[in-house]
UniProtKB/TrEMBL annotation:
Species of the source: Pseudoalteromonas obscura
Keywords on record: ATP-binding, DNA-binding, Nucleotide-binding, Transcription, Transcription regulation
PROSITE patterns tied to this protein: HTH_ARAC_FAMILY_1, HTH_ARAC_FAMILY_2, SIGMA54_INTERACT_4
Protein's UniProt name: Helix-turn-helix domain-containing protein
Family matches, as InterPro entries: AAA_lid_NorR (IPR058031), Homeodomain-like_sf (IPR009057), HTH_AraC (IPR018060), HTH_AraC-typ_CS (IPR018062), P-loop_NTPase (IPR027417), Sigma_54_int (IPR002078), Tscrpt_reg_AraC-type_HTH (IPR020449)
Amino acid sequence: MNESTTPIMSPTDAIKKQLPLTQSLTRYLNTRCSESVLKQLSLEVEDSSQQVKTHIFFDQEHHRPTSARSYPIVYQRKRIGALNLLKHADLPGTSPSELTNLSDQIGILVKRNAIQTLSHQYLGKSASLQGYSDQILNLEKTIERIAAKLCPVFIQAESGSEVIDVACSIHFSSYAKHHPFYEIDCASCDEEDFAKKLHHINTSMNQGCIFFSHIDALSISQQKYLLEQLTTQSNNATSYTSKIDLQRVRVISSSEQNIQAMVDSDQFLPSLWHKLNFFNLNIPPLRERPEDIQVMVEQLSELYQLSPEQHLTEQAKLMLKNYRWPNNVAELEKVLLRAFTLAQENNIGEQTLASIYPQLAATTDYSLSNKQCVDHLLAGNLTPFQKYHPSLQKALSFIMQNWQRDISLKELSANAFVSPSHLSYLFKRALQRSFKQILAELRIRKACELIEHNPNLRITDLCMEVGFGDLSHFEKIFRRYTNMSPREYKKKYQP
């Protein structure tokens, strides 16, 4: 990879000196693109927060070849760069739809970097979403649209989720990003404190964002007071104002509880809920996006390492990935901070993690064997797959229901709402085999069950029954998984 904003240096030194934006984009593209595809790409983006233009070339042998086609990188309808397809006769072609999708996602990552810069500048800490899962990128796409309109936003999330990061992403993506961002934790305020904080906002803020976290903790009297502050009032015949001017100040609120259920049980004012719930965002829990855990572990490890020699073993990383994380990112951060602080050795393994945080010891099933995976599909049981990517779960469910049909990767990915290349990657990474291998073994196991139930079944009928269109191919696959032919297997069960 070549970085044109840095002087000529060795590849190792160049990587070390990359800007955060370049590091983020490089890491993302390496997770989504094969080496052959990367060689066809160059990238140019502009980070307005740092006034830096970045050019990245991934082909070391053909530096700056002619661009065959350019895909604009856009955020909130403004062009902020381009993803360029480079013409190389010796490299395979790349789908235009894949490149268009990549350019859309790169725009989100460029803005994510700007949000980190602005939040650090104004709040003293970097606050932005992390990870490259489809759930997080889709959430950021929604934030991109919502941020353009000054309307109230409600965030629903489990305990320990990235609520402040979502709130900051909304604010620092809006036109009011250089105006104040003020958080009120409703769970820590009594009625007097709550009134004082609202009074302070009313007298000091005429534009910006107010974030009410744990809105469900407000008492009915506090809810009434907040509603009064948000209600438009008449000063005279021609002028209408509200104590918190919703035309100039965005209100964001969040809760771990179901506010609609609280409204239904008379625990929350419906009129206040109506004002707060204009746009509704849901943060997916960490257990539903295990691929984000790996990214977060790497970033938090760099943050909490006491020395560069400290590192997690692969088995320790696998333990972290497969844990359910009931308190989400906050819990993950706490575990890693404890691990790097308390570990006596630099090579931090799974036993060390379990001794520091015993809850992790319950996570023992790191991956499913071939037989276990197919056993669960045969039983119609998708529960063991819940720790995997939702798109992978959808694909496995589709296979379970349609295993007798001729299923293509294109059809499977369409039903899983993910690209074919990314679905292949999910199968290989999570289950260590392709969907074709899982489908083939499922069909053979079904064939064995049919033979055991009816040993006199004709081989040709059996072949068609389990979804194979070609008899010789069926016999070849059957022998591969059972080490015998279908006829030999039948003889075992014939009287």
